[in-house]
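Hello again, I could really use a second opinion on something today. I owe you a coffee for this, so here goes:
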Amino acid sequence: MSDDLTITTGTKVEIYQSLLPQIAALLEGEPDLVANLANVAAALKQQFGWWWVGFYLVKNDELVLGPFQGPIACTRIQKGRGVCGTAWQQAKTLIVPDVEKFPGHIACSSFSRSEIVVPIFSKQEVIGVLDVDSEALDFFDAIDAQYLKEIVGLLPM
């Protein structure tokens, strides 16, 4: 396991391609989900400097806040509510260019302007989501979706 993160500059693709093997090394040999989620959140926050990055886990039919980096966050989210609850319900990645225009958006922070949420699967079931917020409008795109899916795919389930 590596304890250091090499911060990369370049295109978004180059940054993700450098980060993927580093995250794989962080996760290698560690079976604890919370420890792995904490390190992934920290690595993403450190590399990209996003406003908020973290995980929500499905517990008793709601999303419950897991490891994250950033300001305090909503603790529980119902299925189908907000971006996270909708991504969970639809079992698909959601990219929201302007959170104010998303029906039912849950405003945990007034600084969040755009968001991407990636479901985490165990077999065919969504067991959580990776949630990333930016202070900039229209910040996330298909490149982020592709690589963030790969990153959550590295998590040992």
Notes: The beta strands are 52-59, 62-69, 76-78, 94-96, 114-122, 125-134. The longest helix spans residues 12-27.
